[in-house]
Amino acid sequence: MSTADLAVDSGRCLLDLGDTTQAHRLIAEGQVLLPASRDKPRGVFLAYRAQGHLSRRDPEAAAADALEALHLAERIGAPRCVQLVRDLAPAFTPYRTGAGRARTAARRRVTRVGPALLS
Questions:
Q1: Do the beta carbons of residue 31 and residue 8 sit within 8 Å?
Q2: How far is CA 39 from the centre of its chain?
Q3: 95 Cβ neighbours under 8 A, 6+ residues apart
Q4: DSSP letter at 98?
Q5: What is the 3-class SS of 16-69, one letter each residue?
Q6: Are 105 and 61 within 8 A, CB to CB?
Q7: How does pLDDT run along the chain (119 residues), one tens digit per residue?
Q8: Separation CA 102–CA 107 (nearest Å)
Q9: Are 45 and 8 in contact (CB under 8 A)?
C-alpha cells in the first residue's frame, strides 16, 4: 500500500466516523502524493472527497468533485468509481429541489449532477 493510499483510506475511515475536517486533510494529502498515472484511485479519491463535502453541507464542492470523478471513471472504464459516485446521488436530492440553503450556482451544478449520476 502506498503512502497516498494510506492517507486516503485513513481519510475515508474518518469520514465514516464523522471527522470531516481531518478526513479532508488526509484525502487532500493522498491526492498530492498520488502519481499522475493512477487514474482509477484518483477517481475513487474524488468520490470520497465529494462524500465529505456532502457531510459538510457543501453541495457545490461535492458536485464538482462528483462530476470530475464520474467523468474520469467513465473515460477510463472504472465501474467501481462510477458506482461510488452514483451512490452519492440521493444525498444531492435536497439541493436539487431547492430545499436547504444551497446557493443558486450550487443548485444548478447539482441539478446537472443528479441526472448524470442516475443514468
A1: yes
A2: 14
A3: 59, 102, 106, 107, 110
A4: T
A5: HHCCHHHHHHHHHHHHHHCCCCCHHHHHHHHHHHHHHHHHCCCHHHHHHHHHHH
A6: no
A7: 889 889 989 988 998 898 988 988 998 898 888 887 888 888 999 999 999 999 889 998 999 999 999 999 999 999 989 999 999 999 988 877 654 444 445 445 555 555 555 44
A8: 6
A9: yes
- Measure the CA–CA gap between 76 and 53, rounded to whole angstroms: 24
Q: What would the grid cell of residue 79 be? A: 465501474
- Claim: this prediction has a pTM higher than 0.85: no
CA angle 97, 12, 26 (to 5 degrees): 110
